[in-house]
Amino acid sequence: MSSTVKSVVLGAGLMGRLLAHSLVRLGHKVEIFEAQGADAQGAAARVAAAMLAPLAESAITELPVVRMGQHALGRWPELIAQLSEPVFFQRNGTLIVWHRQDSAEAQRFERLLQRTQQQLPDLPALHSLDAAQVQAQEPSLENRFAHGLYLPEEGQLDNRQLLNALLQSLQTQGVTLHWNTPRSVEDFSAGQTGQPDWVFDCRGLGAREQWQKLRGVRGEVVRLYAPDVTLLRPLRLIHPRYPLYIAPKENHVFVIGATEIESEDISPATVRSTLELLSAAYTVHSGFAEARILEIATQARPTLRNNLPAIRRLGERTLQINGLYRHGFLIAPAMLDATLELVESGHSDLATRFGLTIEHV
Predict the structure, then answer these.
(1) Taking the complete model, does pTM exceed 0.90, yes or no?
(2) Is 236 helix (H, G, I), strand (E, B) or coil?
(3) Which are the contacts of 106, defined by CB distance < 8 A and separation ≥ 6?
(4) 81-91 residue pLDDT tens
(5) Domains assigned to the chain
(6) Which of 36, 41, 220, 267 could be disulfide-bonded to 259 (CB atoms 3.0-4.6 Å)?
(7) Beta strands in 123-174 (DSSP E)
């Protein structure tokens, strides 16, 4: 691609930063317009656990997301290696546990995962664990769980480290960054004289005026510092009302979450949600009783009606990438690579392979 290609990216959340970084590496001259500041406070990606668990997520999503997630597990190390700032990345698998009274729910969950494996036999096989095997995977759990499931090769990364590292990369690469400067696709005529060659709309819910099928789904997470707790990998607790995930980051920081509410309200977390998250975490490991609460955060995730992501073409050189829902970090590399194929050739074989929708408007 010519170094004279000029591209505008709307939105500096995960997808916007990742896309801008990759476009510069392809030789584009890139400008970003972001409605808020550089700290990504308005981005759903900042309030996330950044787990990369395609098989685990298959219990609540469809095969396109699982395929994209499997692609991402191989792509994230390559993308992170391009950054100058360190980003915590781990691929130690996912451990799923449950209390005895929730055994029926666990059996249902396991059947869903087994169905996914029948449909996608390339996924690493899950392992059923007894109490001794659970403790071997996570010694600090100390025989609290009689059974578990281990999903090998799944992973996670540190979302905030990644957002910061991408920002540093954009600054180093000379990307023009317009903070607190909201723009819409209607403000540009891509390909026309005096206009950018390409426009990429990655604004999440900020694009709802142009993409009215978008809605917000509220999520709440708690960040804890728990020096008495050591977990070697992300852990999921099965529960019929509030299934829980605990994602261990570096230096005994843990991201705990689960809530999913059909609302765009991003006011502070409720007492009920907070109590449920923290009490469930305590049942997993008593060391969380002495943890320090670093943050209780809320955000609305951009979601389409079918809960699946999509790319829309608004003309030849304007693309909208949206609807990543709760799977942002899991599927962002796949969305990125499909978008880059569209830019380079006008067609994406990856999108076809994933089952990713590309709409023409």
Answers:
(1) yes
(2) strand
(3) 96, 98, 147, 149, 238
(4) 999 999 999 99
(5) 6-49+159-209+306-360 (3.50.50.60), 69-158+215-303 (3.30.9.10)
(6) 220
(7) 127-130, 147-151, 155-157
